Amino acid sequence: MTLINDFLSLIFPRACQSCRVNLFKHEKQICNSCLVQLNRSNFHKTPNNPLYHLLSGRVLFQNIAAFLIFEKQGRVQNMIHAIKYQGNKELAIFLGELFAYDLLNDGVMSDIDVIIPIPLHSKKLKQRGYNQSEYLGKGVSNKLNKPLITDILLKAKETGTQTKLKKFERWENVGKVFEISNELLLENKHVLLVDDVITTGATLEAASQRLLQIKGLKLSIAALAFAPKR
């Protein structure tokens, strides 16, 4: 099998999803050089971080963190593009595992009960073919050893206009965007809500507020990347 893989790699070389150089056979998805240079946010080590300031007062959360800092035309953008538009599920899982490893290594979010990804609307899911946040959640679930639930938080309405709403209008719109299929399953649970990229936080806010309507629910948030405003 190794000989076959080596032969195929000569004909169809695997490329690093960050910098596009050819991978060595022992490398997975990202070359070792890019792994070392990943622009990690380390927000989980700093409670008073930029994401905290973005969503504090909008969402009642226990912990909030993002793995990477997003920059246009950068390596993080290349990876996110591969996940969202090229269907690279394996990369999403791989990055989710890397993120979870950092969380475990620093003893963060160890009391999570369940992991829930931000869902896509059925129309968007059909267009894209899969939910990238779900596969990020799979990677996190693999390392944190916590169950991933994908059929309990549902997106009932497209939120393309959600980011354009004023704060009060977003709160008014919460119940129209997301639905919960079974609230009893989440009562008194600590939920880790997983998203891909946080920019304005509007969709994440709507999903969080719907979850927080559930009795006794505690919420933490983890995203693959944070895109700060310039």
Instruction: For the largest sheet, list the strands in their spatial order.
Output: 1-6-5-2
The beta-strand count equals: 6
Give the proportion of residues in helices: 25-40%
The run of helices and strands is HHHEHHEHHEHEEHE
Flag low-confidence runs.
7-11
Tally of helical segments = 9
User: How would you describe the oligomerization state of the chains in this entry?
Assistant: single chain
- Rounded average pLDDT: 88
Q: Judging from the principal axes of the Cα atoms, what is the shape?
A: globular
Rg, please?
18 Å
Query: Which class of secondary structure composition applies to the elements?
Result: alpha/beta
Give a short account of the largest sheet.
Answer: 4 strands, parallel
- Strand % is 5-15%
Terminal-residue CA separation? 49 Å
Set out the fold topology.
Blueprint: H1 2-11, H2 32-37, H3 50-55, E1 64-69, H4 75-85, H5 89-105, E2 114-117, H6 122-128, H7 132-144, E3 153-155, H8 167-177, E4 178-180, E5 190-198, H9 202-211, E6 218-226
Parallel strand pairs: 1-6, 2-5, 5-6
Antiparallel strand pairs: 3-4
Helix pairs in contact: 4-5, 5-7, 8-9
What does this structure look like?
The protein has 230 residues and is an alpha/beta fold. Strands 1-6-5-2 form a 4-stranded parallel sheet, sandwiched between helices. A two-stranded antiparallel sheet has the order 3-4. The chain has helices at 2-11, 32-37, 50-55, 75-85, 89-105, 122-128, 132-144, 167-177, 202-211, and strands at residues 64-69, 114-117, 153-155, 178-180, 190-198, 218-226. It is globular and about 50 Å long. α5 runs parallel beside α7 (132-144).
